Structure prediction request, 95 residues.
Amino acid sequence: MLLSPIVHALRNVLLLVALVSGAAACRSADASAATMVAPGHAICPVCAADGDLACQDVKIRPDTPSTARDGITYFFCSAECRRKFEKDPRAYLGR
Prediction:
C-alpha cells in the first residue's frame, strides 16, 4: 500500500521530534539560536532553509562535508549542499 504525502510528512516530523527529545544542544543554521539534535548529529543548514525534513539530519563522521564560518563549523548532508552554502552563506544563515 502506498502512503499518502501527508503520512510521509507526518513520519518526517515524528523522526525530527525523536531526534530532538533528550538531545544535547548544537548550533542550528542560525548561529544565534540553539537547536536540539542528537549527540554526533547536526542539521544541514541548506536543507533546513529549503524545508527538506528528510535530509536535514546529518550524522557527523570524519568524512562529513563541513565548513567553518565566523568560528562556527557547519555540517552538510552532501558536498553539493556545502557548495551551495559556501557560494551564498547568508541565504542559509538568515543574516
